[in-house]
């Protein structure tokens, strides 16, 4: 049974995760309060686990000058030690040349209750729609030209 406390904590975790993505402060351990050590991430760019999932996330975001991730409609179902959650997401990516790539999607996640609170142990994003120029798969941030900033 999901308590109001569980719902609120899981909502907070979703928002902290999205803010961390957009802040891009990828210091060692930046996901410690967000993911379990063996978390599995599924995205349109592939599936990875643990430290590889963290590196893949950093690499994917490095393809862009800036991003903004917005979550809405967070629904959680929690038990004593595990939970499931899903939410709608609007993800805006600004290429280094200023062009936009927008994605509307649905996130589905599994969570584990730790001594320090809920952590994602599985997360998958399902793309519903896109608009604009997607990234070139295999293109790294180091090879992309810097461009003008929009906004």
TL;DR?
The protein has 151 residues and is α+β, with helices and mostly antiparallel strands.
Structure commentary:
The chain has helices spanning 4-23, 51-62; strands at residues 35-43, 46-49, 66-78, 82-94, 100-114, 117-132. It has 151 residues and is an alpha+beta fold. It has a 6-stranded mixed sheet, covered by helices on one side.
Summarize the helices and strands and which ones pair or pack.
Blueprint (H helix, E strand, L loop, with lengths): L3 H20 L11 E9 L2 E4 L1 H12 L3 E13 L3 E13 L5 E15 L2 E16 L19
Parallel strand pairs: 1-6
Antiparallel strand pairs: 1-2, 3-4, 4-5, 5-6
What profile does the largest beta sheet have?
Answer: 6 strands, mixed
Radius of gyration (CA) equals: 16 Å
Structural class: alpha+beta
Helix content: 10-25%
Q: Shape from CA axes?
A: globular
* Gap between N and C termini: 44 Å
Order of helices and strands: HEEHEEEE
Query: Could you report the average pLDDT, rounded to the nearest whole number?
Result: 91
Strand portion: over 45%
Number of strands: 6
Q: Count of helices? A: 2
Question: Are there runs of 5+ residues with pLDDT below 50, and where?
Answer: 141-151
Enumerate the strands of the largest sheet in spatial order, edge to edge or round the barrel.
Answer: 2-1-6-5-4-3
